[in-house]
């Protein structure tokens, strides 16, 4: 067909011939697209047993490295774990004893056959042994706020990884915040979280579904942290979901009152075969020993009064306050690390209750951490010290604002891509309008140059209005943004034709050109993904060890669908070229129109296919990839935004360079532009300029819809309002290094829920 069109001396002059060509192309194009979209074969979607074994080993190493780093940041081994005692609960919230442990008939005869799960956090090896003795290894860690539930879970992860038994599953700690049990089962949610938090599992070396296979084959021990952080009406549903897989081992942490309420709620239930342990208050002798172990020898005299008070009357506020692991940590940070005398804490007239002492410590925590941990000098960066100097008062205000924002949206997860939810709707609309106007201005200036200065007054306002509408809708994907930029080309050209008194010409340019271009580009980018997804995307631009994969992605088989990337992209490209050629045939009665259109379409298809292959390659992880962290996810999402803009811009540059070379001197509708392009080299340069303009338009449009682009707009808005410091992510990274925040995969959380709630209340009180 293409050869016929190029060789024909008379072109396709008659409407009948054109109609026949379109009729013949339509079923071919539709059939090929449906074939490309057919479900992949079963064999292509299942990881082999060898791949699952390799993925399990890789995941174990990643989890071990991740939590060892977190243990160092939290100083859990410095000087050593606090001695928090745990015992089997006396509340009626556990399953029957015979379901939890294998009972001894002789012990049962004397009514001593019940579970005897006890232990201490500083003797985690013994607790791991007790856990392994449970019939189904299902455990609930309950306790009051600040009593060390998450600390026990973290130390249990390390112990199980450091001293594994044959065929042990990999313990993976997952924050439960964000799990909707009405939408996802436990296995579905775990599979998604593993793929998101550990992108290495999506490497080609592990097959197409390693994360799901690890979950369904019971290779994962989920340690689910924070049931109490979910809405009250959701907690009973979570337990029901956990009981749907009653033979799966798991560990669950929750505050005691919240767990008791979830079990007693209508439709609630105990965790099947689940043991429930609770923490006891820290013994005064253990608290005093821990504090003394943290003190430098020369400062011990300043602490004698407090240590004596802790070891004395247990009814004093200071003794009651320091029975909590959280308060002991706060004491260490506010007084021990700052070399400050704690004598004032023994003044009962100033601190009449344990809560007043805890609130005082929470008030001064941020300032104490920043002052006691200044950045190192140049060239002496410490991995667990802040990189920059921050104003203590400003840092506390910013953290309070963020805590208040999280409380308002009902989550503990500080996800940078969701900060836009804290922005007023007006700010979101204004930012959308600005970006839309910018995109429209770029396209308008380009078309003003193309159609000639005579129409500039009409072209630019039309483009600005159109771009404004695009920005305000805030619902377009990057692919649609690209299609609209290209379609705008035809729209403005059509408007120009109307102004020149050629309404028929305007309709012919606008309708087929705009519609077909949008459809063609969307089809061409269909395999690239969905850039407007709420969560950030993965991207890796490293070439080492990935050149063969790059070559395969650019020219070979697409694993997502069994078709050649270039072949699929060629189909919509030719469709767009056909629309352009037909428009030119009708307008100028030129026998070259369809030829140029088909060649242009082929070039567009090939260039778009290469761009799609490049993006697909960038989104394929390596098998040795690190777990996702907040800063890593941001930088990679931003890289993907830039990559997609550059790839699409390069494809446009190639296509328009060829188009300009083919049409120099043949068309009147592009006027001044082609008059200035006096040769092949100049026309190719002009094509590259076109591509650069398109790339800029794409980047501006995508900025609203790629998570990193939205974050930059939101952070800049908050910075102008004085709510957060400049370089917000760097500030959050340093807050993690200081121990104020903790990393939970790609999100941050405040280290303790009490700290989160305290800062949120403070912000609400002072605003």
TrEMBL record:
Keywords from the named record: Membrane, Transmembrane, Transmembrane helix
SUPFAM superfamilies from the UniProt entry: P-loop containing nucleoside triphosphate hydrolases
UniProt keyword Nuclease, yes or no: no
Coiled coil residues, start to end: none
Keyword Transferase in annotation: no
Protein name: NACHT domain-containing protein
Transmembrane intervals: 12-35, 426-449, 455-473, 480-499, 505-525, 563-582, 594-617, 638-659, 679-704
Domain NACHT as annotated: residue spans: 137-235
Organism listed in the record: Amycolatopsis mediterranei (strain S699) (Nocardia mediterranei)
């Amino acid at each position: 067909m293409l050869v016929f069109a190029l060789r024909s001396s008379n072109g396709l002059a008659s409407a009948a011939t054109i109609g026949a060509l379109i009729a013949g192309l339509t079923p071919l194009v539709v059939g090929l697209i449906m074939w490309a979209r057919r479900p992949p074969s079963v064999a292509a979607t299942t990881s082999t047993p060898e791949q699952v074994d390799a993925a399990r080993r890789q995941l174990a190493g990643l989890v071990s490295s991740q939590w060892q780093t977190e243990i160092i940041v939290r100083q859990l081994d410095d000087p050593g774990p606090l001695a928090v005692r745990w015992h089997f609960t006396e509340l009626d919230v556990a399953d029957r004893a015979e379901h939890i442990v294998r009972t001894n008939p002789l012990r049962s005869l004397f009514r001593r056959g019940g579970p005897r799960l006890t232990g201490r956090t500083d003797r985690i090896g013994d607790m791991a042994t007790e856990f392994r003795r449970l019939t189904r290894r299902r455990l609930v860690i309950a306790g009051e706020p600040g009593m060390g539930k998450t600390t026990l879970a973290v130390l249990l992860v390390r112990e199980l990884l450091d001293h594994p038994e044959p065929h042990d599953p990999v313990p993976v700690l997952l924050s439960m915040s964000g799990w909707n049990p009405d939408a996802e089962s436990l296995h579905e949610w775990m599979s998604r979280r593993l793929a998101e938090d550990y992108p290495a599992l999506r490497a080609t070396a592990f097959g197409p579904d390693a994360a799901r296979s690890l979950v369904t084959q019971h290779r994962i021990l989920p340690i689910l942290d924070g049931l109490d952080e979910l809405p009250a009406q959701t907690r009973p549903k979570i337990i029901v979901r956990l009981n749907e897989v009653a033979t799966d081992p798991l560990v669950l942490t929750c505050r005691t009152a919240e767990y008791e309420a979830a079990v007693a709620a209508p439709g609630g239930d105990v965790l099947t075969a689940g043991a429930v342990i609770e923490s006891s208050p820290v013994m005064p002798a253990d608290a005093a020993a821990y504090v003394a172990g943290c003190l430098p020898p020369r400062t011990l005299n300043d602490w004698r009064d407090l240590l004596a008070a802790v070891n004395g009357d247990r009814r004093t506020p200071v003794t009651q306050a320091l029975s909590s692991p959280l308060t002991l940590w706060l004491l260490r940070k506010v007084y021990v690390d700052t070399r400050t005398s704690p004598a004032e804490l023994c003044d009962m007239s100033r601190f009449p209750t344990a809560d007043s002492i805890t609130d005082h410590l929470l008030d001064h925590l941020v300032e104490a951490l920043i002052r006691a941990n200044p950045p190192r000098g140049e060239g002496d960066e410490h991995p667990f010290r802040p990189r920059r100097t921050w104003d203590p008062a400003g840092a506390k205000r910013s953290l309070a604002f963020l805590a208040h924002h999280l409380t308002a949206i009902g989550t503990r997860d500080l996800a940078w891509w969701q900060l836009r939810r804290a922005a007023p709707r007006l700010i979101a609309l204004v930012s959308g309008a600005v970006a839309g106007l910018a995109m429209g201005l770029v396209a308008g200036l380009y078309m003003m140059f193309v159609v000639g200065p005579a129409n500039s007054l009409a072209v630019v306002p039309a483009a600005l209005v159109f771009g404004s509408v695009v920005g305000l809708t805030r619902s377009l994907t990057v692919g649609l943004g690209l299609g609209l930029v290209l379609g705008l080309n035809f729209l403005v050209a059509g408007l120009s034709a109307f102004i020149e008194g050629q309404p028929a010409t305007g309709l012919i340019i606008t309708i087929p050109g705009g519609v077909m271009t949008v459809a063609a580009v969307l089809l061409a980018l269909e395999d690239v993904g969905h850039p407007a997804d709420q969560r950030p995307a993965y991207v890796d631009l490293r070439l080492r060890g990935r050149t063969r994969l790059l070559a395969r992605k650019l020219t070979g088989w697409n694993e997502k669908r069994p078709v050649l990337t270039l072949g699929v992209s060629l189909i919509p490209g030719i469709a767009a070229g056909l629309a352009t050629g037909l428009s030119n045939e009708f307008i100028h009665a030129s026998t070259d129109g369809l030829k140029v259109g088909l060649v242009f379409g082929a070039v567009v298809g090939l260039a778009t296919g290469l761009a799609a292959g490049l993006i697909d390659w960038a989104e394929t992880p390596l098998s040795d990839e690190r777990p996702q962290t907040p800063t890593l996810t941001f930088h990679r999402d931003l890289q993907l935004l830039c990559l997609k803009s550059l790839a699409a811009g390069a494809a446009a540059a190639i296509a328009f360079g060829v188009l300009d070379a083919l049409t120099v001197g043949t068309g009147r509708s592009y006027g001044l532009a082609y008059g200035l392009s006096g040769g092949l080299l100049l026309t190719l340069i002009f094509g590259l300029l076109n591509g650069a303009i398109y790339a800029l338009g794409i980047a501006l449009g995508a900025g609203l819809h790629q998570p990193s682009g939205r974050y930059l707009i939101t952070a800049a808005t908050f910075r102008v309002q004085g709510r957060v410091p400049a370089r917000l992510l760097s500030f959050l990274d340093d807050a993690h290094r200081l121990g104020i925040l903790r990393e939970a995969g790609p999100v941050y959380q405040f280290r303790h829920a009490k700290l989160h709630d305290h800062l949120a209340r403070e912000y609400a009180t002072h605003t």
